Amino acid sequence: MRSDGSALNLRRWWRSAGFAWAGIQHSYRLQANFRIEVWAGALAVALALLLRAPLAPILLCCGLVLSLELMNTALEAVVDLASPELHPLAKIAKDAAAAAVLVASIAAALVGVVVLGPALWRLIAGP
């Protein structure tokens, strides 16, 4: 479909948002790792709210991990379409995309420890 040229067209934006939501739904339904990351992120956000810890770093990390997981899912689909048979370059592409999610997940966990750790420790250790 051709664009009407206006970036501020509400109908166009709503249609695009629908496509994006379909991608999120597909990933949540079919990708176990995405479901795990969604719920881990929800837990981290809830914990930050409960502990009155800074929310911005937690939200940024959650957004990064989930975005990379969605990109990984998209890349895997494209690679499978372009190369249905096993190919060393297809493996490299898929492994590198998965590695990006892993690196972001490790970084998010470290941010979680730094941001939530001290408040959680105070809660557990008591006054």
From TrEMBL:
Keyword Transmembrane: yes
Transmembrane stretches, start-end: 38-66, 96-121
Membrane topology: Multi-pass membrane protein
Pfam families in alphabetical order: DAGK_prokar
Protein localization: Cell membrane
Record keywords, A-Z: ATP-binding, Cell membrane, Kinase, Lipid biosynthesis, Lipid metabolism, Membrane, Nucleotide-binding, Phospholipid biosynthesis, Phospholipid metabolism, Transferase, Transmembrane, Transmembrane helix
Keyword Nucleotide-binding: yes
Gene3D superfamilies per the UniProt record, alphabetical: 1.10.287.3610
MF-aspect GO terms: kinase activity
Family recorded in the similarity comment: Belongs to the bacterial diacylglycerol kinase family.
Protein name stated in the entry: Diacylglycerol kinase
Taxonomic lineage: Bacteria, Thermotogati, Deinococcota, Deinococci, Deinococcales
